[in-house]
Amino acid sequence: MRVFDPHIHMTSRTTDDYRRMAAAGVRSVVEPAFWLGQPRTNPGSFGDYFDSLLGWEPYRASQYGVRHHATLALNPKEANDPRCKGVLDLLPRYLEKDGVVAVGEIGYDSMTPAEDEAFAAQLDLAREFGLPALVHTPHRDKAAGTRRTLDVVAASGIEPGRVAVDHLNEVTVAVVKDSGCWTGFSIYPETKMSPPRMVAILQEYGIERVLVNSAADWGHSDPLLTVATGEAMLDAGFSADDVDKVLWRNPIEFYAQSGRLDLSELPEPEATFAGSSVKRGGS
Amino acid sequence: MTPETLRTLLGGVPENGWFAEAEARVRADPDAIGQLFARAGRMLGRRPLPDHPSWTAGQAGRVLLLLALTGEPLEGRAPEGAASTVTVRGRVAELYWRGDPAERLAVLHALEHLGLGEAGVPLIEDALRTNDKRLVAAALGPCAALLDDAVWRQGVVKCVFMEVPLSVVDRLGERADQPLAEMLGGLARERAAAGRRMPGDALALLNRQSLAKGWKAKEG
């Protein structure tokens, strides 16, 4: 099984995790910029964080044979602190970097006016820099938050196929699928989504435009739950090719839309997805 | 790697047209380098070049874009103290501090041709403080001529710790001195006490320095 985890916060994980992930088949990861648990109080702090996501962390991953890319943004939670607003001015310089494959995580936390503003501005940046967008949906009031998210995405004019709406569940999957956006699921030990529930959703909604991630971070989470989901799919009768599509080809297809995904040190994928953009810059 | 060689390497890649346009833009408007410098990696290619596996077309292009800032791409040196150099110094430092590792690497590779003098030192010293083998190795390349001996020796010993081959160190044979030999000797004793080996190249350097010392003592 080869696995591309499209959403994992490796900065918070240990080298033991990298070792276990590589051994289990995780060959490539995307790390979205997000809240670190401790609020930041100035844009410089974000600049250092972005540098780390493009510098030290990919290097650390490479020591274990894992490819690391990042998505950068001002996250919705910290968008509420006026001291962090300057991050939006910092982003254009960073969104040009090779290692950036999307704008994210953007979206809503508490659905405040400040979040509205940061979300819309960053969808515009995604269009301007030719990047897809990774959108977080709120923990609280998730159904309403997801609908409002889709309204903002539609209003921005970004193509739905270039947007992944993440942390979905049984209640929010249908509306996102209907919108044409990618559906993202974070498999957690207890909350959000479990491997058996994920399998049931795949059985009902199919395996197109689905991203399965561990979203592992500094909280109670497990970077091997992507692999566990693949195993649960096989146990439920999905084919090895279906698992490969969900856990490998789909995330590549989504992020390859950036034209920057570089998997050159990894074995060539077998399928013919997104052809030129996967290899772009590497040939 | 000389600018002429880099230019020849770039001449062989299909994206050379993009580079020619980017270079012309930087010459006409130095502010344009910010985005073009970042973009050069993926536009020109991020795979190792067949005959120069430690280089990519993207990195070659980045170095040449930096040289385009001086307005003298092949000679690459603005006169020491000239007004234009002040701008170039600031720009190059900004590109380093705001660069990702590949961009920083390109700055380090370009330093030897840019003639920025002391302004390059903080960048090289920063690279030596990282734990990224690529940056540490580049910092000990030709640009390390700007470093004072104490910093340079620390860099060499750091290579031994990080298992970076000492072949990356420019003018190692010429610059290695007795204080470096003493540092390596101390490390060798620590390693022996811990039951760990010294890398072969470090041992060879230590032996050469010890022999040289022996000869000097004999001659003296």
Spatial sequence of strands, sheet with the most strands of chain B: 1-2
CATH-defined superfamily of chain A = Metal-dependent hydrolases
Approximate helicity band of chain B: 55-70%
* Structural class by secondary-structure content of chain B: mainly alpha
For this structure, what is the CATH class of chain A?
A: Alpha Beta
Question: What is Rg of chain A?
Answer: 17 Å
Oligomeric nature of the chains? heterodimer
Strand composition percent of chain A: 5-15%
CATH architecture group name of chain A: Alpha-Beta Barrel
How do the helices and strands follow one another from N- to C-terminus of chain A? Answer: EHEHHEHEHEHEHEHEHHH
Terminal residue distance of chain B: 40 Å
Mean pLDDT of chain B: 89
**Total domains of chain A:** 1
Q: Compute the number of helices of chain A.
A: 11
Q: Strand order across the biggest sheet of chain A?
A: 1-2-3-4-5-6-7-8
Quickly give the structural class of chain A: alpha/beta
| Average pLDDT rating of chain A | 92
β-sheet strand percentage of chain B: under 5%
What is the total tally of β strands of chain B?
A: 2
Number of separate domains of chain B: 1
